[in-house]
């Protein structure tokens, strides 16, 4: 997967998530905040995590050149979380998302990685509008989206979901 672009910030490396990240992804997808705010993905083993990467993340990477990135701290190569750009047909566009293991929250890593992914989406992948969804209870995510320059747009309901979500959007200057 080395022909897909990775990104760097002052403290972080963001590389496309691959099957070698399965142990880490298994822990993240089963962390309490992931389950609470994103939902149970029924990934209960390393094999499930490898299949999730292969079937849910890799196809978009191969099709669009971007997808989900594993966020790695430069100082010790610790895998901290994920950040990415996701094509969501139900949102009619590209969704930015992020999630971190509990022990790495509140260190600015989510903002640092999401800022870089937003920049790359606009400057390197030519995306003119980025959206995001979050639950009404996830105030930390709402604040981060606002800090990234996204603005609350409206309430949405995804197909086959009961919960209303907050939809945020950012439109690159000169595009409507």
Automatic annotation (TrEMBL):
Enumerate the GO terms in the molecular function aspect: acyltransferase activity, transferring groups other than amino-acyl groups
Q: Which UniProt keywords apply?
A: Transferase
Q: Does the keyword Cell cycle apply?
A: no
Domain N-acetyltransferase: start-end pairs: 12-172
* Listed Pfam families: Acetyltransf_3
What name has this protein been given in UniProt? Alanine acetyltransferase
